[in-house]
């Protein structure tokens, strides 16, 4: 049974002192799945992510990757944070290498992956630029490239497009889908934007208000490329919206 | 306006912007030179008109003459100008260098490792407010009046800003950048090395610049009390002999050396922090 799941989350619970943020959250993720997590603002989405990345330790419960307790030192995790997180003192290329160098991959393997990622993202002209010389969206693409280049067991994205306008968001959403298909990565994408969740996900997890529990899992079986005006799409989106509003 | 950039081709516009920039640069350089000239002119005027007693202030030309003469004449303080400069530089740079080599890494370690901070902080807090000059008597007893004693005093003056700034700099490392390292599975030391230190460099360099100022200031005080050569010593001798030109020459040379050293530090900063300029 555990073979078919890449990631298993069991009874994840978190208290900060008296503040109960996360309450007994359990779910599984299949290898190569694209999972979106939505919930009302302030429901503890980021705490949830920080538990998955092991920045916080859970009060109760555990996270398993390939049947083992998740450990960033052992497993290959990648995170795209909400805030800009490119190292400002490294060039685009060196930023892309950063994670792989920490994992101490062979140099020619890093070279190969970086070259591939630069090509995939069309960053050739920005190779030797520094993040502050780039537009915000390009800087964010580097972060996404850095995360995918790790070929992680689990890729976590925390509202990576929260700050961007709608056109850029559409563009970058398609790019993430493209990378995901190309690389076969397992992705957990956290967002408060319901349309974004339905557009991207194979499955949507809806969280409740604090203390957050899973209200519902919604499978999104719409073929890609998806259209936001497709009646099926609208139906799912409305359903998710209802679920979030209902308390 | 006839030269409005709206009607230009791309090349013309680039050339236009570049020539504008060159003009601004030229203007700023000229203004800087004029500022310095103006200062000397006022000085000269004050002396020539007899507004100030010539025993209290000598003319610019006299100082310049002495500057030339001191290259070959050790009188009246007993050492050539270059010998004095060299002896001062040796003290300043050895004390200052030591302060960087010890202060900056210590600040990094204290800023990063909480336990080490708890251990070091009380000692540092006690040492910090002690005026460097108050170490003079002890350092003379311990190390005589040679290079070592004076470097020691300069070291104390330069050490504090080096440490405080690298400490503060590394404490201000963005949480998200640290988390990037941690989630990629880096050890605490790797995050310290690859994220903490690079992100603290801006602050560390600001500290180093403050430190060189402190080092110079203390150097002169140290030499005034115990020395047989050096710029501070030359100033002190000038005072003893009532040679106001010698005193002023000492002051000016210290100022100029300060400018040169600051420029060298800035070059160094550009090398390490080039990414900021681009």
What descriptors fit this protein?
heterodimer, A: 247 residues, alpha/beta, Rossmann fold, 2 domains, six-stranded mixed sheet, four-stranded antiparallel sheet, 7 helices, 36% helix, B: 278 residues, mainly alpha, MetI-like fold, 79% helix, 0% strand
Short description:
Helix content of chain A is 36%, strand content 25%.
Describe, in plain words, how this protein is organized in 3D.
- Chain A is of the alpha/beta class and 247 residues long.
- Chain A has 2 domains: 2-76 and 154-245, P-loop containing nucleotide triphosphate hydrolases (Rossmann fold); 87-151, no CATH class.
- Helices cover 36% and strands 25% of the residues of chain A.
- In chain A, helix 2 packs across helix 3 (107-121), helix 2 runs parallel beside helix 4 and helix 3 (107-121) packs across helix 4 (136-149).
- Chain B has 278 residues and is mainly α.
- Chain B has 2 domains: 5-56; 61-277, MetI-like fold.
- In chain B, 79% of the residues lie in helices and 0% in strands.
- In chain B, helix 8 (188-225) packs parallel to helix 9 (231-241).
- Chain B is flat.
- The interface between A and B is medium-sized, with 31 and 21 residues.
Radius of gyration of chain B: 25 Å
Number of structural domains of chain A: 2
Largest sheet of chain B: none
At CATH level 3, the topology of the largest domain in chain A is: Rossmann fold
The average pLDDT of chain A is: 87
Supply the number of structural domains of chain B.
2
Shape designation of chain A: globular
Q: Name the CATH superfamily assignment of the largest domain in chain A.
A: P-loop containing nucleotide triphosphate hydrolases
* SS content category of chain B: mainly alpha
Overall pLDDT score of chain B: 89
Number of helices of chain A: 7
Tell me what the CATH architecture of the largest domain in chain B is.
Answer: Orthogonal Bundle
Biggest interface and which pair forms it? A-B, 31 and 21 residues
